[in-house]
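User:
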Amino acid sequence: MTNEELEKIETRAEAATPGPWMDRVDDSGFLLVCQKDGSRPSDGICGIGDIEETEPSDHFNAIFIAHARTDIPVLVTEIKRLRAIEHAAKDYLTADGPETYQFYQKLQTLCGQPSN
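Assistant: Predicted structure:
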């Protein structure tokens, strides 16, 4: 995945209705995805279909869509963190000056571990 592709994913996630989202069946029996806090109108984020006419996979799709709102930003953050670690490793392997211990400390910081 290129940085440009990752940036586009992040932009789409940031532009979406704030989360978290959940799946639910409304009063008329319609399966939909909506905000958990109820601040979105009753029509929700997106409608899946009448619960009487949906397939079992439709409910799993609704769960997937609802969780994507919080899962995607977490995944983007993790990809960026791992890329920073990769960059640090490449910098160390191609540079003439850094000491091994300094590199080790930088990796610990990037990995979210305190350095000793």
